[in-house]
Amino acid sequence: MFFLYFREDLRIEATHFLENAFLLIVKMLEMEVEIEEDTSELVDELLHSIFFLGRLTYQFFLPERIFEGSDLLDDLMSNYPNAFELYMSHVPRRSPFSCVLDMIVHLIGQENVELIKEELGQLSSTLVQNDNSKILNSTMVCISWAESVRYYGVSMSTHHKPGRQIVIAASCLNFWDDCVADAVMTYCPQKKKKKYFDGTIRLPAEVRCEAFNIRERRSMPPCVSCSDLFGLQTTETENKSPYGNCAEAESLSKLFKNENVKERVQRSDNWNKQDRTRAEQDVLRHLKQVLKNNQHFEWNNKEINFYIPHARLDSEEDEDFNM
Predict the structure, then answer these.
(1) Are strands 151-154 and 140-145 parallel, antiparallel or unpaired?
(2) d(Cα 319, Cα 79) in Å, to the nearest integer?
(3) Per-residue model confidence as pLDDT tens digits over 33-53
(4) 296, 297, 300, 305 alpha-carbon torsion, rounded to 10°
(5) Cα 64 vs. chain centroid, distance in angstroms?
């Protein structure tokens, strides 16, 4: 009886996944049309990330099922063939809602903080929620800045453990700024601080980092994990998210890559390149093991390919991109 209930519960959750996936894809396509610059790479990245997580989580998942009853499938397959062909062999470097966030910021403008928060709140409220599972839906947004430009990040929109483990590891290895990656790798994948490596950081005094609950639309203090990683002051004593799951990681990573503040970030006195390489290899080994345990992921058990998004095939920049 328990098994039958579990299968039915999983089927309902998968249905919600398909519904939310379709809503996010349609939303991205609508926003893309309104933006003058070419943002098709964000659409490509979103598609691949959704397809990867769908197949990872639900054995019976196929991308085509998202578009049943819609005429979008043929155009998307034509414009973004890699997303459809490589979702079982290449690892996404970030979660789907991160792509949505970037599109919203492109559309509204980074300076319009309240409008961005409102847009995120409205979108989040349209997505189906299954009990406490935020299916393809981020809970938090974080805004970091040192001067006038705001940098946004969202929490991982991966509602099952394998997906979250994979995307956090991939972000550490191939997407986040190295200061953020080092801090997260200090605790990942063992969920406790490594004895041989301390990559935690302390932010420069001029950096501001504020988190908000997207759906409830209220400010939130940093969790204990973010205090451990980045030295953020918090009143929290029990709220401890998985290391790397929080919106602060993505937001600070963008800040460090674009502002002249990284040189003033305080690293641990014990940090060294050799131990950093060892920590990176630890994360890589764990990522390979998680992927090896998933029968749907196709790879050679040696090198991991991370998915690099492409501009759509009909874009003017496509020819230059493939040179």
Answers:
(1) antiparallel
(2) 14
(3) 999 999 999 999 999 999 999
(4) 160
(5) 23
In Å, how far are 108, 185, 208, 218, 280 from 178, measured between CA atoms? 28, 10, 19, 30, 11
Alpha helices (runs of H) in the chain, residue ranges in sequence order: 2-34, 40-57, 72-79, 81-85, 96-108, 113-126, 161-174, 178-185, 224-230, 247-258, 273-292, 318-321
Rounded to the nearest 5°, which phi and psi values hold at 95? -85, 160
Distances, alpha carbon 201 to alpha carbons 104, 168, 277, in Å: 29, 18, 17
DSSP string, 292-307: HT-TT----SSPPEEP
Cα-trace Rg, the chain: 19
d(CA 278, CA 271): 12
The pTM is what?
A: 0.93
pLDDT digits (tens, 9 = 90+) for 59-97: 889 999 999 989 999 999 999 999 999 999 999 999 999
Residues 6+ apart with CB under 8 A from 251: 142, 143, 144, 151, 152, 153, 209
Q: Is the dihedral of CA 53, 101, 279, 234 positive or negative?
A: negative
